[in-house]
Structure formats: C-alpha cells, structure tokens
Amino acid sequence: MRTWVFTLCALTVVVSCFAQQQLYNRYDNFNADSIIQNERILLAYYKCVMEKGPCTKDGKNFKRVLPETIQTACGRCSLKQKDVVRKMLLGIRAKSEPRFIELLDKYDPTASNREALYNFLVTGN
C-alpha cells in the first residue's frame, strides 16, 4: 500500500512538472510581429491582460504568466520567449506609452524591478 501511494505521488509530481514545462514552452513559436502590426489585435491582448476586455485562450495564458515575466524581467524565459515578450512590450509601448506604464504599474506596482525590466527591453537580456 505504501509503495502504491508513493508511486502515485511521484507520478503526480512528474506529470505536473511536465505539464508546467509544456505550458511555459507553448509560445516558443508565437508570432509577435503579426500581433504588433495589427493594432486591433494588440489592443485586444492589452485589454485582456488589464482585465478590461474578454480574453482568448492565448490571452488568458499570457495574463497568467505576465506577473512573473515582468517581475523577473523574463528571468525564466528561453531566448525565443525573451524575443516574443520584448517585442510585445515594446509594441505596446510604441503604440501607447500611457498603456505601457499602466501595464507595468499593474504587474509591478512597487516598481521594484522596473530598472531590470527597462534594461531587458533595451538589451534583450
């Protein structure tokens, strides 16, 4: 009986870790350029993450990972993910500086990581 419980717990941990990694890698092939070029779609993503409009499945996932992404300046991101996040944030900033600041204020309200985030936006690292 103990072996069965231990095996079940171990399997749960492995599946959970795998699912989390798969979800995190989901946007490795995401085309940020097509979203940035379409102001209507970019605004829809913005409204979703700011809780001002409906969310698509992708929008919900972005909203879920955005707090950590902004607070760590994309610290756990792969190189491709860093490129996507950087393009999206710079795209929002280029279209509307006030919206960009509002987004940062929502997900990093203490501005504790603002310098690292701006450095990431400039350098990509």
TrEMBL record:
Name of the protein in question: Uncharacterized protein
Q: Which Pfam families match?
A: OS-D
The question of whether Cell membrane is a record keyword is answered with no
Q: Which range is the signal sequence, renumbered to this chain? A: 1-19
Keyword Transport on this protein? no
Keyword vocabulary terms for this entry:
Signal
